[in-house]
Design brief:
The chain is an alpha+beta fold and 149 residues long. 17% of the residues lie in helices and 7% in strands. The protein is built from 2 helices and 4 strands; from the N terminus they run H-H-E-E-E-E. It has helices spanning 3-17, 26-35; strands at residues 112-114, 132-134, 139-140, 143-144. The protein has a two-stranded parallel ribbon. Strands 3-4 form a two-stranded antiparallel ribbon.
Length: 149
């Protein structure tokens, strides 16, 4: 066998058994966990399960595909954040702001959405099974989500 073939085969084997590559910036994850401020950060694909993010500033943050299972986002500002495909199952979002957020394909199953601001959100193909909400009315294009035709 020739050397270039063996090298290519070794690289392919390594890639085949390695885990998925995460896109988040490790520095941004650390910044969020330490300061609770990460406006505009790239946290896509980050595992923030059970994180205490009370009052966190996540405006314009990219949380696409992030794992926020059982995360405490009470009072967090997620205005204009990209949460497409994120897993927020069993998360606490009491008094949070999701105004203008992208919630397409998000998993909100069994999440707690009490008094959450949701003006102008995008929420296509989301899992809303078992969501607990009080005084939280999602508005899509100025129309309450439940009233859309």
């Amino acid at each position: 066998m020739n050397q270039p073939f063996i090298t290519a085969l070794s690289i392919m084997a390594t890639l085949a058994v390695s885990g998925p590559v995460l896109a988040e910036q490790p520095g941004h994850v650390q910044q969020l966990l330490v300061t609770q401020k990460c406006s505009g950060c790239d946290l896509s694909g980050a595992d923030l399960s059970q994180a205490h993010l009370i009052g966190a500033d996540l405006r314009n943050a990219n949380l696409q595909g992030a794992k926020l299972v059982e995360a405490n986002l009470e009072g967090a500002d997620l205005t204009d954040a990209n949460l497409q495909g994120a897993d927020l199952s069993q998360a606490f979002l009491t008094n949070a702001s999701l105004n203008g957020a992208n919630l397409d394909q998000v998993n909100l199953s069994d999440a707690h959405l009490h008094s959450v601001e949701m003006q102008g959100i995008s929420i296509q193909n989301a899992n809303l099974a078992g969501v607990k909400g009080y005084k939280s009315v999602p508005y899509v294009g100025g129309t309450p989500y439940a009233d859309r035709k």
